[in-house]
Amino acid sequence: MAAPSRIVYPSKPREKRSRSRIWIGVFIVLGLAGLAISFGYAFYLPYFRIQQIEIHSAEIIPAAEVEAVIRREITGREWLILPRDNFFLISGEGLEHVIRDRFSQIETVSVGRRFPNRLTVEIRERILWGIYCRRENLAAPPDSCLYLDTHGVAYEDLSDIQGWLLPVVYAAGTKVIGEEAVSPSAIEFYESAEGSLRGVGAEMLWVSFSTSSPAEMRLGLAEGWNILVTASRPVEEWTKVLAVVLEKEVAGRRSELEYVDLRFGNRVFYKYRSHPVLQPLL
After folding, report:
1. Which residue in 173, 185, 200 sits closest to 262, CA to CA?
2. Which of 21, 105, 185, 202 has the most CB atoms within 10 Å of its CB?
């Protein structure tokens, strides 16, 4: 009887984990842990925490107030762990946004970091030009008055107007801080009209834009009378017509005028406060 055949499969030897690989893994883990500890320690070092804040070009706004806003913003912990005043965690753009929100008088601001623990803040303040007041009509008192910069942007509330030291613009619309209340072209018109009127001995105090026709304006003068003009007509043109009216028609009765209407070319209408009837000049 033949012996049964046997097929023997050789057993596969177990792979042994290389000790060298294990040690390499250990060293990597320890290295990363050490690196993390070093970085964490660096975040807490006084050397990298903001110690000096330099404010440049702030003239009206106290530099101490700007610094106080920044200090409050960088006080505390980031992610509940890291100090927010660490040089590497400071966001210049974030601080710029906070400063602009706090100080509406600032037109532009730039925050720069200077290694290892210094901030520099460059500020350009708005230049005051005049006042914008909401006014439905000339018979109604003005309200919602705001300071305007040279670009016509409203940047600060004004509770009361004392005297006529600044140009005043009246219109029916309600404006808010931070938006353009008066267009640059309107400011250019005001300044041009103001300069031309000085040539006829008139001091311009305010301009009121018509609610029904924005192209038409009423100019208020220090003498107490008004001028009605339209934006489509050059300032120099209607000023010359006004000079003729004041010299040849009104003469010594300027103080009695209520208004002069210069909207219709050489056909001028003017009215005295003591006369209910318009006086046309052909």
Report:
1. 200
2. 202
Q: Are 25 and 61 contacting, i.e. CB atoms less than 8 angstroms apart? A: no
Alpha-carbon distance of 193 to 200, in angstroms, equals 11
Which two three-digit tokens encode residue 208? 């009121």
Q: How many CB atoms lie within 10 A of CB 209?
A: 19
Looking at the DSSP bridge assignments, the partners of residue 218 are: 208, 228
Maximal C-alpha separation, the chain: 154
pTM assigned to the model: 0.78
Residue 13, judged by CB atoms within 10 A of its CB (0-12, 13-18, 19+), counts as exposed
Query: Which of the two residues, 63 and 143, has the higher pLDDT score?
Result: 63
Report pLDDT for 277.
44
List C-alpha distances in Å: 182 to 88, 116, 150, 259.
42, 44, 10, 24
CB atoms within 10 A of CB 50: 21
Burial of 60 per CB tally in 10 Å (0-12, 13-18, 19+): exposed
Range 194-199 contact pairs with CB under 8 angstroms and sequence separation of 24 or more: 194/167, 196/235, 196/236, 196/239, 197/221, 197/227, 197/239, 197/242, 199/239, 199/243
Nearest to 120 by CA among 156, 92, 160, 159: 92
Residue 62 token pair: 């106290």
